[in-house]
Amino acid sequence: MDSLNSLVEGFGTALTPLNLLWAAVGVLLGTAIGVLPGIGPAMAVALLLPVTYGLEPTGAFIMFAGIYYGAMFGGSTTSILLNTPGESAAVVAAIEGNPMAKAGRGAQALAAAAGGHFAGGLIGTVLLVALAPVVAALAVDIGAPDYFAIMVLAFIAVTSVLGSSRVRGLASLLIGLTLGLVGLDGTTGQARLTFGSLQLADGVDVVIVAVGLFAIGEALWVAAHLRRHGADAIPVGRPWLARADLRRVWKPWLRGPLVGFPFGAIPAGGAEIPTFLSYVTEKRLSRHKDEFGRGAIEGVAGPESAASASAAGTLVSMLTLGLPTTAVAAVMLAAFQQYGIQPGPLLFEREPQLVWGLIASLFVGMVLLLALNLPLAPVWAKLLRVPRPYLYAGILFFAAVGAYAVGGEALDLVVLLVIGLIGFGMRRYGLPVLPAVIGVILGPAAEQQLRRALQISDGSLTGLVNTPFSLAVYAVVALLLAWPLIAKVINRRRNLTA
């Protein structure tokens, strides 16, 4: 009841004309920045930090929250329409969203994504209000073996579900894990795969890998086939969801937050794991399994809802523990410290107006985001009418600008081109792209958690399975690995019975 009263007071703060203005500015900026490949919400908030020195803290954080949610939706827009994720959380949306766009259903894919962001953000923020202390306590209790088990589950799931074969999925994952090794070893400080370059000592940024594999690889692949297949523009399609589409998306919209929110609250890779797990779940539960890989709308609705709920979960551990679980949370934590405010258990007592105003602004921002982006869905979809030579030339330009903006180094452009050529080769030989991106994102974190778990257990492998949570996760992993054999046995018995 206290939380509800505090939330009502927070709405009183968030709905003042000035704070409403900051929320609208944040949503607009976030959407616009998210559409540009390579410039995600973390960079947007970081770039705007100096601009907010003169702002009141509440207004500044309301604008940051608007940028966060807006950039997540903007990233999924280019991911769906151009197969070019604006940020890593939008990678999964490209799997089904881009085939939908190519089939003339880009507006429906964007509408499903907008609805998913609204539903996921709404449910996630309600859970933030109700369950923040509980989730924070769970996050404290989860140790290194549990984190490593979650990441192994993500690796096995991503190689099992995507691509035409498990071998190709595993090959793609190994490419990503290899790219994740580039840089200095976090434990020993030894340089790995840097080829003597100091610029590569910090590793290859995930944004460069995602943009290179998706945007550059796709652009090169299209360029290689333009003469053969022509350069006709793709039809836009109807700018609304039909009843049949609504019947297919409402359950994924509601299931997404159940996966996204808990993962957002623990340091297990941000929105990347829950979006992928949501995709796997929808593929397993859907009655339209034959459409997956060719444009299944559930594969857009579920992951986007999970991503939005994950953003709300991220705020749980940041506000209650001062623990940033994503890059955006880390930048926002720096912003709190800029104002002399320390997030943690006492923040709700010391700065109630700021905290509850920020939480209430999330509800306001989601309404603004839905009102802004649903009418714009057919407008964004008209990007597909641009002739493909001009469209992909623009993609290459913005991808290069985004990659250069990450570190300001000319070497980043060379790395981007090399990774783009790898992406082109992966398309040529039928390797799925997503496992490679997952490998780059989670590989270094998995290595760190593995080393930490082994150090705690004095090098004993039993240290990886010494908690009930990790045992439960490995049981799921074993089921995923054994499922093809189990399915074969079941099918044989059915055939014999028939």
TrEMBL record:
Membrane spanning stretches: 20-49, 61-82, 118-140, 147-164, 170-188, 200-223, 311-333, 354-377, 389-422, 429-446, 466-486
Domain DUF112: 20-437
Alphabetical list of Pfam families matching this protein: TctA
Keyword terms, alphabetized: Membrane, Transmembrane, Transmembrane helix
Listed InterPro entries: DUF112_TM
Stated name of the protein: Tripartite tricarboxylate transporter permease
Organism: Streptomyces tamarix
